[in-house]
Design a protein that fits this description.
- The chain is of the alpha/beta class.
- 38% of the residues lie in helices and 14% in strands.
- It has two domains: 175 residues, Aspartate Aminotransferase, domain 1, CATH 3.90.1150; 236 residues, Aspartate Aminotransferase, domain 2 (3-Layer(aba) Sandwich).
- Helix 5 packs parallel to helix 6 and helix 11 packs across helix 12.
- The two termini are 42 Å apart.
- The protein binds pyridoxal-5'-phosphate.
- Pyridoxal-5'-phosphate binds next to helix 4.
C-alpha cells in the first residue's frame, strides 16, 4: 500500500499528481482519449487533479500518487454506503464463493425483484442489467412497444446515457437516430403541452430526471405541481412517463425519487448506488406495461450475475438499518451550509443547488465555470476530491470529521479564488 500524504497537509504541502499524469500519457497511446466520458481530464484544469486511483475505504479514496482524499464524488454516484463496506463486501464474497456468472440467474434475482416491488409503490415488476444506459434505452423501447408510437420527449441538456438517441456526443450518429426525439425546457409544462398538441397520437414517452442537472449550470428543482401536471398530461394523452432515476436512485427516497416528488411514473430506470459500486442497473414498471416489457428483447453477457445482486440486497439492508436517506440529507445540508458560509466570509457567493445529498456546487453567476474549476482544483490539492462539472454525492460513510477536513481544504482555496478573481 502506498504511503499516504494526509499528515503532510499540516505543513501546507499541496498534492502533486506525477504518477497520474504519467499514466495518462501512457494511456493516450493505447486508449482513445486516454480516459473517456465525463472522467476525461479534458474537462478539468490539466494536471491539477488526480486521474487514477488505487483504493477506497469508507468515505476516502487514495490516488496513484498516494494522496488521500475525502471523496465527494463517490465514483459518480454508485458509492452509497461507503467504499469497501464490510456487510456489502461480505455478502458479495459469500455469493462469489457460490458463483457469480452461472448458466442462468440465481434465486437472488427473484428475491431482489420482489424486494424492489415491495419498496416501490408504483412498480409491479423489475428487470436488471448493468448500466443506466441499458435501462433508459430499454424503457424507451418498452414505451414504444406499449403505445405503438415513435416520438420521445426529453429535456434540453438532460443526460440519459451514451446511446445514439440521447448521447451528448455528435460523432457516429445518423440522422435517423434522433429523428423521433423532441425536446423541451425542464419545468416548462406549457411547452410540453404544446408538443403534445402538435404531435397528438405520436408521442410514446416523456423521459426525464426527478430534477434537472447539467454540467454547466445550477441544478434545477421541479417547480410546484410540475410533476403532477405532467402526470395528468401523460394520462390524458396516453403517453408513458419514464423517470430516469439512474443518478438519484436511493439518495432521495427508498421508494424511488417519484415518491420524493409525489408522482408515480410508469417506468423508472435505476442504476448508480443500487449495489454500492457493483455493476447493476434496474428498471421497474407498472402492471399495464408488463406485456410490452416481456416483448422487448433484453439480455447481456453478464446481466444475470449474482454477486452484484447480493451486494444490492446488503446495500438496501444497510440503508434501512442506518436510516441512510435522512443521514445523507443531514450531512449534505451541513456540508453545503458550511461551505456557503465559509465562502461568504471571503466575500464570495457559493451556490449549492439540487438535493443536499447530491449538491451541485459552483460560484453564483460563474457562467463559464472558470472560478469553480480553479476552486475545485485547489480544494482537491488539499485533500477533498470534488468536481466543478458534476454534482457531488454524499454517502452514509461520510462524517462530520470529513466535513471539517473539507472546510480546511476549502478555506485556503477560497482565498486563492478571491486573490485571483476578486469577488
Ligand atoms: C441521469 C442519468 N441517466 C442515465 C445515465 C447513464 O448511466 P450509465 O453511465 O450507467 O450508462 C446517467 C449516468 O451518469 C445519468 O446520470
Amino acid at each position: 500500500m502506498a504511503e499516504t500524504k494526509t499528515d503532510q497537509r499540516a505543513d501546507a504541502a499541496l498534492y502533486t499528481f506525477d504518477r497520474s499524469v504519467e499514466l495518462f500519457e501512457r494511456a493516450t497511446k493505447v486508449i482513445p482519449c486516454g480516459i473517456y466520458g465525463h472522467h476525461s481530464p479534458a474537462i478539468r484544469t490539466p494536471g491539477a487533479t488526480p486521474y487514477y486511483f488505487q483504493r477506497g475505504q469508507g468515505s476516502r479514496i487514495w490516488d496513484v500518487d498516494g494522496n488521500e482524499y475525502v471523496d465527494w464524488i463517490c465514483a459518480y454516484g454508485p458509492m452509497l454506503v461507503g467504499y469497501n463496506h464490510p456487510k456489502v463486501e461480505a455478502a458479495a464474497a459469500a455469493q462469489r464463493e457460490k458463483g457469480d456468472c452461472l448458466s442462468g440467474p440465481s434465486p437472488l434475482m427473484v428475491e431482489l425483484a420482489e424486494r424492489l416491488v415491495q419498496m416501490t409503490p408504483f412498480a409491479d415488476w423489475f428487470v436488471f442489467a448493468k448500466n443506466g444506459s441499458d435501462m433508459t434505452t430499454w424503457a424507451v423501447q418498452v414505451a414504444r412497444a406499449h403505445t405503438g408510437r415513435n416520438k420521445i420527449l426529453m429535456a434540453q441538456g438532460a443526460y440519459h446515457g451514451k446511446d445514439p438517441w440521447c448521447t451528448p456526443g455528435h460523432a457516429g450518429l445518423v440522422p435517423g437516430d434522433r429523428e423521433d426525439m423532441l425536446s423541451f425546457r425542464y419545468n416548462d409544462l406549457a411547452g410540453i403541452r404544446q408538443l403534445a398538441d402538435r404531435h397528438r397520437g405520436k408521442i410514446a414517452a416523456v423521459i426525464l430526471t426527478p430534477y434537472h442537472f447539467t454540467n454547466w449550470q445550477d441544478s434545477e428543482m421541479p417547480v410546484e405541481a410540475f410533476w403532477q401536471g405532467l402526470r395528468k398530461l401523460c394520462d390524458d394523452e396516453g403517453i408513458v412517463l419514464i423517470l430516469d432515476d439512474v443518478r438519484t436512485c436511493f439518495r432521495l427516497h427508498m421508494g424511488g425519487s417519484g415518491e420524493y416528488f409525489g408522482v408515480k411514473p410508469d417506468l423508472s430506470a435505476y442504476c448508480k448506488a443500487i449495489a454500492n459500486g457493483y455493476a447493476l442497473s434496474a428498471c421497474g414498471g407498472r402492471q399495464e406495461l408488463k406485456t410490452a416489457a416481456s416483448k422487448v428483447f433484453l439480455t447481456g453477457s453478464y446481466w444475470f450475475s449474482a454477486v452484484p445482486m447480493a451486494a444490492a440486497m446488503a446495500t438496501l439492508d444497510e440503508m434501512e438499518a442506518c436510516d441512510g436517506i435522512a443521514r445523507i440529507y443531514e450531512l449534505g445540508t451541513t456540508l453545503c451550509n458550511a461551505l456557503t458560509e465559509a465562502a461568504a466570509s471571503h466575500g464570495l457567493q457559493l451556490a449549492c443547488t439540487g438535493h443536499p445529498s447530491m449538491p451541485m456546487v459552483k460560484f453564483a453567476g460563474d457562467d463559464d465555470m472558470y472560478r469553480t474549476q480553479v476552486w475545485c482544483a485547489e480544494v482537491t490539492r488539499r485533500g477533498a476530491y470534488v468536481h466543478p462539472h458534476h454534482n457531488w454525492f454524499v454517502s452514509t460513510a461520510h462524517t462530520q470529521e470529513d466535513i471539517k477536513r473539507t472546510l480546511d481544504a476549502a478555506e485556503p482555496a477560497f482565498a486563492v479564488v478571491k486573490e485571483r478573481f476578486g469577488s
